[in-house]
Amino acid sequence: MIVKNLIAVGVFTFLLFATFAFVQKDKIQKTEPVQTSGNNSFVILELFTSEGCSSCPPADELMGEIGKEYQDKPVYILSYHVDYWNRLGWKDRFSTPENSQRQQRYSYALHSQVYTPQLVVNGKTEFVGSDKDAVENAIEKAFLTSKNTDIELSAEVSQNKINVQYAASTTDTKNVLLVNLIEKQSSTEVKKGENEGRHLQHWQIVHKQNEISLAKQQKGVTTFNLPDHFSPKDWEVIAFIQNTKTGTISGAKKTTFN
Q1: Rg over CA atoms, the chain
Q2: Band (171; pLDDT cuts 50, 70, 90)
C-alpha cells in the first residue's frame, strides 16, 4: 500500500512539474520580444515584384504588414518593380530596367534564379517574398548577426529638386552608397494581364536609386528630380552601404524630409 502511494505521489509530482514547465515555456514563446544583437543591428529587405505577376500581390501585402510590425525597429523595406513582365499584357507604371538589372546582379552574386516575388535580405540570402515564416526568421537572424556602419543622412526639397546630404564612414574601397527615393504607399487598378480587375496595394516603392562610390567620396550631396504630386509625408529616403563584389550590405539609414 505504501509503495502504491509513493508511486502515485511520484507520478503526480512529475505531471505537476511537467505542466508547470510547459506553461512557462508557452509564456516565454508568447511574450519574448524581437531581440537585437546590441551592436546597432539592421535589416534591409529588397523585394522584386511586378503588377503583371499574379503571385506578387501576397508579397506586396506582406511587406505592408512587416512595415507595421517592425515600424519601431531598424527594418528597411525597398520594393523594386521589374519591367520584364510588361510585355505580357500589362505595363507596371513603377517598373524600370534598372530594377531588373539589379535583380540580375543578385542572381549572379547569389547563384539564384530570376523570379518574382523574390526577396533579398541584407544582400546575402534570397527566397520567395510571400513566405512570411522565412521573412520573419531572416529578420531575427539579421538582428543577431548584422552590425550597422554609421551613415549620416538628411533630405530637403529645394524648388524642383530633392537634395540628400550624406556621410558614410567605411574603409573598404569596394563599397558604394545606394541612396533611394521611396514612395511609402500607392495603389493601382490593373486592367490587363494576370492581375486584371484587381486593385493592388504597394508599399515602399523605389522610384530612383543613386549610386555613389565611397572610394572617391565619403560625404556630399546627391540629387533627385521632384516627383509629380510630391508630398513630403508620403516619401522618404533610404540609403545603404553595399560591397560591389560580394553584395553584402553593411549599413543602412532612413530619413524623412525637412
Answers
A1: 23
A2: confident
What single-letter DSSP state applies at residue 50?
-
The three cell numbers of residue 120 are: 533579398
Cα(15)–Cα(213) distance, integer angstroms: 64
Distance CA 88, CA 31 (A): 47
CA–CA dist 80, 201 (Å, integer): 14
Residue 1 has pLDDT above 90, yes or no: no
Q: Is the pLDDT of residue 108 over 80?
A: yes
| Predicted confidence (pLDDT) per residue in 26-53, tens digit | 333 333 444 444 458 999 999 999 999 9
Q: Residue 110: enclosing H or E segment and its boundaries?
A: helix 97-110
DSSP string for 108-165: HHHT----SSEEEETTTEEEETT-HHHHHHHHHHHHHH--PPPEEEEEEEETTEEEEE
Three-state DSSP string of 169-224: CCCCCCEEEEEEEEEEEEEEECCCCCCCCCEEEEEEEEEEEEEEECCCCCEEEEEE
Q: What H or E segment, with its residue span, contains residue 155?
A: strand 151-158
Helix 57-69 vs helix 132-145: crossing angle, to nearest 10:
40
The residues with which 49 forms a beta bridge, in sequence order, are 81
H-run or E-run covering 157: strand 151-158
- pTM metric for this prediction: 0.85
